[in-house]
């Protein structure tokens, strides 16, 4: 099996073998773009390394040897040769881009001898020995695991001693001195001598990249992004080009379009006379790419052309790393650029308009995370408070939180329910757990492509980077800006879109639909098969749902209407009633309240179906909790005038005891209430039909769909369906012909799914209540599982997802599919849909499409997402 590929042998399709970076380096080489030559050690080689107990196999050894000889022939340089030294970079490259997760080693091949040679050959001793010390530092850090601050502090000490304020001023002798210090540091900490044998350097570097696949940061990243641990990483070995040889050299990063706005114009940053990650590290603040047009117009034009070529080739916005050596441009990496939601939508729409993508292709590009972001918040500009400072608008969105200065505190505070904003001089991959829990990030150093910026954009969090006026001092737990000092715990508001942040809490505004999103939704509606309904319990939600494009209401939970205080008193009276007559009396009081809610919803949803679920939760949920009642009782017991109230309280307490159940979720709820207290369901159905008749009289068409919850046996539905039909007969009267109402059931008890054939004759529709269906199929209590054991299951990968978020298609999905098939066998026109939490989840929506459901129903804010996901499923 071939384990090593020259860049001339691979192509973009070979990602799984060559990793993303290697595959694209090969593709660019193939397209004649200026890529320094090199070779890729495959992911297979990495896996073989792990399998042989972290040993480089003889086969790989031979493969590397051959590829290296070839490279030496091609370049006329030889690794370790003191006359013509070959220097290489060793770069990790996994299949999915894992930014900042694994480290690159530059200038490998330098030792005491070849460093002298490089100095003589170039006539630039300061350059040569800077390269050498950088190499020792990276090697010491990445391969030998010595924390970089040891090296940093030696450098700072050196500069201080000589009064140098930046690296550019350091002389060759200065670097030589530092090299001596570095070697000692390695000898003390590693503890080995820094290897002078260049073959040994290469072998150790390759192994370090392999092993970095299993470092903690990489593991965390894979877990968050669901990248399989079994992939392994490739290693790229590439000859060095130097951006740090003088003023006609430099290094930078460009995006072919603006990753924050999507605007079609080269966007990026560069630094002259710099190497490698100087741009990303935020040590010096880089120049905008437009400045390159003035400084090196030829290079700039060539960069523009290459960028265009790459974008057309990949049919997507590219993120390109480049280096300029003595006025010659080299491309070191290209990949599909990360972007925020607004940019993603704009780019996807623009690429269709430019004729580069079809609308189906561009729909596939839309990521759920982007839609989540787009539907994010901004600042209420009219209410802004004191402006503290402005940095780079690195990732949009607005957030409010309390300032913390380190990742661990961020985690601690967020676990105790606080909203935190992480403020750091800069961030590194070690801070990832802190970024994850923060509402937003502020850094004082680094540009738009700094670590904090890239990671925050990926996570869809607001980020302000490079706010140089802020002096952030984590050790003192405070930062100063102008005359102001902000301390740990102080509230600030961050606007990532403009780069401004404010003292205190600024009210935030909900997101709006952009023209690009609206365009994409129009295209989505053209291709999707699934209809998208909303879960909406009141006229206000219905209005929002309709704005977002709901084609009906898939779930209206009537009980939510009962919790308003004046209604709660009535429903409590209904529950406390000992006799049916008393209960009916209370119900008659509730009736007009329900009716007016339904009227409001019917008006909002004019012409569209409205699925109303009859009362579902156990009745005790409407009564106060026992301790509260007892507390109240104790308070009034001594009060002479409160006898009537006391009797009432005692009655309530008795009722709460009566209604107590060990497993209320498996108890007296859903249609079991309707069976025992038909008068409750009768009142609700009466309210529905009275409302329908009234709204129809206004000239509006109404399509009520009455949904019976928790049916497990056909008999239950048979009884309750005839209750609905009887009330309909009575109430609708002359409207009956025009009101084509439906009666159906929620399928949420496994037995209902299993006996769909028996149930279907009584149902006009099946709506899969996948929250309960998941709970009952897995036997997990939804309210308890999360906190008690589910996280362990997810950590140990016993479950691929939280089954309450992503439908368990293998298990629960089978029940759904079976019920659809069997139900339709009996009743071909049976309408089917899903109304659980899963109705707003992309993967679950794909499944619903696959098994041929008619609709998904989700919260109003998820509707745009569901429309797009449904379209993606259809393409
Ligand atoms: P990452 O995946 O973290 O971006 P890379 O492997 O792309 O790591 O390397 C980081 C940077 O190192 C590159 O952007 C480039 O500036 C520099 N670099 C890598 N290889 C070379 C090379 N052969 N010549 C010059 N610079 C290089
Ligand atoms: Mg890196
Ligand atoms: Mg890179």
TrEMBL record:
Keyword Coiled coil appears in the UniProt entry: no
Cofactor(s) required, per the database record: Mg(2+)
Top-tier EC class: transferase
InterPro entries (alphabetical): ATP_grasp_subdomain_1 (IPR013815), PEP-util_enz_mobile_dom (IPR008279), PEP_util_AS (IPR018274), PEP_util_C (IPR000121), PEP_util_CS (IPR023151), Phosphohistidine_dom_sf (IPR036637), PPDK_AMP/ATP-bd (IPR002192), Pyruvate_phosphate_dikinase (IPR010121)
Keywords from the named record: ATP-binding, Kinase, Magnesium, Metal-binding, Nucleotide-binding, Pyruvate, Transferase
PEP-utilising enzyme mobile domain span: 418-499
Gene Ontology MF term list: pyruvate, phosphate dikinase activity
Gene3D superfamilies per the UniProt record, alphabetical: 1.20.80.30, ATP-grasp fold, A domain, ATP-grasp fold, B domain, Phosphoenolpyruvate-binding domains, Phosphohistidine domain, Pyruvate Phosphate Dikinase, domain 2
Catalytic activity: pyruvate + phosphate + ATP = phosphoenolpyruvate + AMP + diphosphate + H(+)
Cited NCBIfam families: PRK05878.1, pyru_phos_dikin
Family, as annotated: Belongs to the PEP-utilizing enzyme family.
UniProt name for this protein: Pyruvate, phosphate dikinase
Organism: Cohnella kolymensis
